[in-house]
Write a structure and sequence with these properties.
Layout: E1 4-7, E2 12-17, E3 20-26, H1 30-58, E4 62-64, E5 88-90
Parallel strand pairs: 4-5
Antiparallel strand pairs: 1-2, 2-3
The protein binds zinc ion.
Zinc ion (ZN) binds at residues 61, 73, 75-76, 78, 85-86.
Length: 91
């Protein structure tokens, strides 16, 4: 479930999730369009980070120091010091 940024190439940028609009920006010219596009991308980035954080809160990846997985989490492949995903570290 990844949000999508859509530009109707006329006057509006929207962010949709599963086809449903969750946020929209209007623009009048090219300069404004660039600013709003940046805002839309920031919004999506924040959405993804928040979603990941919420998922990690309910089901955190646990680093097992005895498994020999090294620096990276076996579950997601990210460094286990990435605290966005890895809220619990087993010693
Ligand atoms: Zn992980």
């Amino acid at each position: 479930m990844t949000p999508r940024v859509n530009d109707n190439d006329a006057d509006e940028i929207t962010v949709t999730l599963d086809g449903k609009e969750i946020r929209g920006w209007s623009y009048a010219d090219e300069a404004e369009r660039r600013v709003k596009m940046r805002a839309a991308r920031e919004f999506v980035e924040g959405w993804l980070q928040a979603t990941e954080y919420a998922a990690a809160k309910t089901e955190p990846h646990v680093f097992d120091a005895t498994s020999g997985d090294g620096e990276n989490c076996a579950k997601c492949g990210a460094n286990w010091r990435d605290t966005t995903r890895h809220l619990t570290v087993a010693a």
